[in-house]
Write a structure and sequence with these properties.
Structural class: alpha+beta
Number of helices: 13
Strand content: 15-25%
Order of helices and strands: HEHHEEEHEEHHHHHEHEEHHHEE
Low-confidence stretches: none
Number of strands: 11
Radius of gyration: 30 Å
Strand order of the largest sheet: 2-3-4-6
Helix content: 25-40%
């Protein structure tokens, strides 16, 4: 147990002025179980908003199969988990008081003998990432719903997923998963009582059915057939096909073909490579539906285009092409 005299002597050797320091002194020592306890704990660095959620009683969940990079999810956000090494040893000290706490207590020249409970040379850090939602559609498409009277629905062996199942298997927060279920037009079997037909969704689904049977479709002929194929009273417009089909107005006659955003790569650079290999130059109006889902909290369509493409003026219209050669 160190005395005040020994502490003052140490300060002299270190050439430190005691008047410039707080009067309280922490004397640290390793307890008998400190070495064993070191491997029993992981340190996690959290942003203030996540700390507040934990303090309010909410949970953070780590998700991922054995062959997947683990992510951490809050109620509404997803974060990549990375191990960060540090050259400084991080100590676990129960009841340790910060300088601000010591100042508030107006402690005198006392010595506080503190036992180190454990230590670590690394910690987990979080980085906000896009939810990994491709797997969600794959799971749902394993066994599409065919209505309550189908023989498949009467067979209890075919796959169905509860919300809890999806939370356990999809690397995304609950709010992000529920939002994507809306995008995929998923329905909760035996859990939604009333339904209303959505004209836009019916027109979009009808267009997909027509387009998937042809590589390319004469635009004028397609619009005529499409309008005739939807229920009476519904009006078809090309705005209903954003992220589903692409119109080529440079060809003669103009054509339309299926291009689903769900089929494009999730990685930013790979997404742009794929789009620029399909078409050399894009207007912002045409490319926006195919990169909208890449936008994060601080990323807009404009910032993505600035980073991954270069712009030019063609016939008075701003167009975008790749910054790198596309093979």
């Amino acid at each position: 147990m160190r005395t005040r005299e020994e502490v003052d002597a140490t300060l002299q050797i270190a050439k430190l002025n005691a008047a410039e320091l707080l009067p309280a002194v922490h004397c640290l020592g390793f307890g008998p179980g400190a070495g064993a306890a070191a491997g029993d704990f992981c340190l996690l660095e959290l942003e203030p908003a996540l700390c507040q959620q934990l303090e309010a009683g909410h949970s953070l969940v780590i998700r991922g199969d054995k062959d997947e990079q683990a992510v951490l999810c809050s109620k509404d956000k997803t974060y990549d988990l990375k191990i960060a090494d540090t050259s400084n040893m991080l100590l676990f000290i129960p009841g340790c008081k910060t300088p601000d706490q010591l100042k508030a207590e107006e402690t005198h020249c006392n010595i506080i003998h503190t036992e180190i409970f454990g230590f670590s040379n690394n910690y987990w850090e979080l980085r906000r990432c896009r939810p990994k939602l491709k797997k969600l559609k794959k799971l749902l498409m394993e066994d599409a719903y065919e209505g309550p009277d189908s023989q498949k629905e009467k067979d209890s062996n075919h796959s169905k997923y509860t919300t809890e199942d999806l939370l356990n298997q999809i690397q995304a927060s609950e709010e992000e998963i529920m939002a994507q279920l809306q995008v995929l037009n998923a329905c909760e079997i035996e859990g939604e009582v009333y339904f209303e037909l959505s004209a836009d969704k019916i027109c979009r689904a009808t267009a997909q059915m027509l387009l998937q049977n042809a590589v390319k479709f004469n635009l004028a002929e397609f619009q005529e057939v499409w309008q005739q194929s939807v229920p009476e009273g519904m009006i078809t417009t090309l705005d209903q096909l954003k992220g589903l089909a692409l119109v080529d107005r440079q060809s003669r006659p103009e054509i339309i073909f299926l291009l689903k955003v769900d089929d494009l790569p999730e990685d930013n650079q790979e997404r742009f490579n794929s789009l620029f290999s399909l078409r050399e130059k894009w207007t912002e109006e045409d490319i926006a539906p195919y990169i909208q889902d890449l936008c994060g909290e601080k990323q807009t369509i404009g910032t993505l285009l600035t980073k991954y493409s270069r712009s030019s003026i063609q016939n008075g219209v701003k167009v975008y092409n790749s910054r790198r050669p596309i093979s």
